[in-house]
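Worked Example 4.2. Consider the chain below.
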Amino acid sequence: MEIHTLLDAAAEVVSRVPCCWLVTQSGARPMGRILAGEDWTVHFVTDLRSDKVPEIEQHPAVQLIFQDAAQDAFVVLGGSARLRSDAASVTRLWKKSYALYFPTEQDRAHAAFVEVEIGLMRLWIRGVTPEPFGLRPAVLEREGSANWRSTSPATSTPDPPVLPGWR
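Applying the procedure from the previous section yields the following structure tokens:
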């Protein structure tokens, strides 16, 4: 399968699923997200008073899980997270709908964004990934800042690559 076909299919699934699961070392939580352009950087609004803030600072390896069960499409994105709390980043990424979660100026002073640079994809997308569907994912790893390579197993099912820091 062509890498650009896999990337396009993953982008389509991510764009039509409004929320995903953010998986950290201590667990998972549902999140809304912003996918910024074609560089596979994902942003989440967060409160600096949240428990996930120190956790991400200590253990930045995270995974994002997107599911569109009606279309038999499942995407797991792995990457390294960091906090963006500078005024320029918050202003650039801010949406009016976030005011619901940060209703006062004091609350908004604690608004920040979790930025996840995606470095690994595991894809189970019917009609795109290897048959029989669900047995093996298509696996893509980032090389450098823009290139991707397939590391999908040809016939066996070894453990897929793991991000550094992820246990």
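The domain at 3-150 is CATH 2.30.110.10 (Pnp Oxidase; Chain A). The longest strand covers residues 111-125. Compare this with Example 4.1 before moving on.
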